[in-house]
Specification:
Layout (H helix, E strand, L loop, with lengths): L7 E7 L9 E7 L4 E8 L11 E10 L2 E8 L10 E7 L2 E4 L2 E7 L6 H42 L1
Antiparallel strand pairs: 1-2, 1-8, 2-3, 3-4, 4-5, 5-6, 6-7, 7-8
Length: 154
């Protein structure tokens, strides 16, 4: 068993896939321990006999010396949702449809500024909700107080 692959972006190039000049770059990004994306990037235009480009997102796990990726988000072309994609592991590299994919760089990180802004917006909305609840409670108490004063004077 080869173990768990290194997280990051792997890519490789297949030459003359369906005709001369139909070169395709395959890119696999292992984002974390369960999530990946796979894309097909052809050099030759689809209208000149090349393959159609596609991008899918998948959930992956290691089985023996293979990565089994189940498509969770499909593209217009390419593998369909819930279909299995098998990637073979071999000495730190991956292989997809006979193309060797080598590790190039670590996985892309989430945009930290975007995450922080979302957290701030969530905190602001929670504060507004608490403020509205307190205002409603204060109004209710004021009404009760006015009712009690009216009863005391009567």
């Amino acid at each position: 068993m080869a173990g768990v692959p290194r997280l990051g972006i792997y890519n490789g190039r297949a030459k003359d896939v369906s005709c001369a000049g139909d070169n395709i770059t395959y890119e696999v990004a292992l984002h974390d321990k369960t999530r990946c994306s796979i894309q097909c990037i052809p050099e030759l235009s689809y209208f000149r006999g090349g393959q159609p480009p596609w991008y899918v997102e998948a959930a992956w796990e290691v089985e023996d010396d293979e990565i089994l990726a189940v498509v969770t988000k499909q593209d217009v072309t390419g593998p369909r949702k819930d279909s299995d994609i098998k990637l073979t592991m071999d000495n730190g590299a991956l292989s997809y449809v006979g193309t060797r994919l080598t590790w190039k760089q670590p996985p892309p990180e989430e945009d930290k500024l975007k995450v922080k802004k979302a957290e701030i917006e969530l905190a602001r909305l929670e504060a507004q909700a608490k403020e509205a609840a307190l205002a409603a409670e204060k109004e209710e108490l004021n009404e009760k107080q006015a009712k009690q004063q009216a009863e005391a004077q009567a």
